[in-house]
What we know:
By secondary structure, the protein is mainly α. It has helices at residues 13-36, 43-96, 98-114, 127-148, 152-163, 167-192, 209-215, 230-238, 244-251, 255-290, and strands spanning 197-200, 205-208, 217-219, 226-228. The two termini are 36 Å apart.
Amino acid sequence: MRDNKDEYKQLTSSQKYTFMFICIAIIFIYVSYLVLLDDHTDFKDLYAAFCAILGGLIGGLITLEGVKRTVYAQREIESQKLVPIKLLNLYKLKKELKFFEDIKVKVDEWEWNLDYYAPPSNDDRSENAFTQLFKMIRDYKKIKKFAESSLEDKECLFIQMSSEIDIELYYEIVQLFEELNTKIKFLDEALQSVNFLIYNRDQKEVQDVVDLYKTFVRIEESDGVEKFDGPIFIDYMNRSDITPGQIVNTVRKAIPHLQDIYHCLDTGVSELNIMIEEMESVFKGNKQRSL
């Protein structure tokens, strides 16, 4: 899920120093050779100059190494101070992952419901086609609401927490939301292509199937259970140009997009859990060593 990043090999400090020493030695030998060509140059003077330069070089490298170790030690101390905060944010992040799990459960349920029945033919006006349509309208409304909703607030929350823990974790969160938002956008586009408008020849009016469905739904006052006047609804639709088979097959276009969203979250959350567990282990180990 994470983008593969090119890893560049870097020279260690000792390798750098060795390389610098060799370069200086080569340059010094070359210059010494040129100087020795002059008969007036004493070898002892050349040797003394070489020792002075070499001593200065070694002293400079030792000083540089000491400064670097001091800086690294200070950074390590500052990093240890942040461990409790990072552990706390990791704990919060683990709890927030339930947000993705909840979406997975809903998406899986919607996909299962839409794909439960075999797809009807487009001209199907049978009882089975209407049964699929009745059940599908309820899920369609929920899916449509989900596809039109914004994840911006949750995305900001996840980014804020991950940025205070680790840069790799931050990139993982950003990429997961980018993929999720893209797949939800495709789902929304698929649902927008659904034609729920039907024309009633008798009443000469255009109505939305979802609104029409609501018209024939009533709540029983005695038990609060939703009741639906199916025969009236079927009769109304049978006098229209569009069939339940056409609507069902159009709504079914959402199935592959729901599957994509589920697999995106399943993979993304699994990788996040692995990263979080590894970081918890590292942070707790560092904390124990510092005590």
